[in-house]
Amino acid sequence: MSTQAEIFEKYGRTFSAGQRIFSEGEIGAEMFIIQSGKVRISKQSKDVEKTLVVLEEGDFFGEMAVIDKGPRSANATAEGETRCIVLDEELFEQQMQNNSRIVKKILKNMSTRLRDANNQIENLLIKDANSRVAHTLLQLAHKRGGGKTADIRLDGMNVDELARAVGMESAKAAEILAKMEQVHITRFDQGQVVVVSLDNLEKFIRYLEMKEQFGL
């Protein structure tokens, strides 16, 4: 049986921090499995590049272009030095035929991404900036919290990344986060956003909804 080192030597590729792995619109013939590091998936909207998700070890991306032979639907950028296993079309088809686990994982992954995309679209349609930030933080907290209700660290989510995710200027996102920090909803740890209290965040969202409903 091949070791991880042998597999990486044969199929691996290393990307440096900030290196673009592929760009939206390119024709793709490979999918990637992250062995170590992180990859930011983003999409260009007018003059703003919005972060869709930050993927970590064990996640994969780029499979859609291999399946439908279409152009890449988003950008992929290495966050820090990142090592990936790269599967071309032939290897991908072999895995699909011989490995039912990867088929199930791909289907689950595609379903999750579709749900996340729908949630993100809904968030971007929210006019109130405070609500957009709060709903985005709530989704990330549920996704990364693992059942925790306090001190949920949103790794990879700093002010600039949050601003890109919600479609606003970094200064505005920083202003909203500062207000949320004052009422013990969030804090910063080494530049990364931490949800201090999931309960307070949910109360804040309910307050914003009531404020909009009653025109306060």
Question: If you had to describe this structure to a student in words, what would you say it looks like?
Answer:
There is one protein chain. The protein has helices at residues 4-11, 63-68, 89-98, 100-125, 129-145, 159-166, 170-182, 198-213; strands spanning 12-15, 20-22, 30-45, 48-55, 60-61, 75-88, 150-153, 186-189, 192-197. By secondary structure, the chain is of the alpha+beta class. The chain has two domains: 4-123, Jelly Rolls (Sandwich); 127-213, Orthogonal Bundle (Arc Repressor Mutant, subunit A), CATH 1.10.10.10. The strands form two sheets. Strands 1, 2, 3, 4, 5 and 6 form a six-stranded antiparallel beta sheet that branches. Strands 7-9-8 form a three-stranded antiparallel beta sheet. A hairpin with a 2-residue loop joins strand 3 and strand 4 (48-55). Helix 5 (129-145) runs antiparallel to helix 8 (198-213) and helix 6 (159-166) packs across helix 7 (170-182). The longest helix is centred in the middle third of the chain and has 26 residues, at 100-125.
SSE arrangement:
Blueprint: H1 4-11, E1 12-15, E2 20-22, E3 30-45, E4 48-55, E5 60-61, H2 63-68, E6 75-88, H3 89-98, H4 100-125, H5 129-145, E7 150-153, H6 159-166, H7 170-182, E8 186-189, E9 192-197, H8 198-213
Antiparallel strand pairs: 1-6, 2-6, 3-4, 3-5, 3-6, 7-9, 8-9
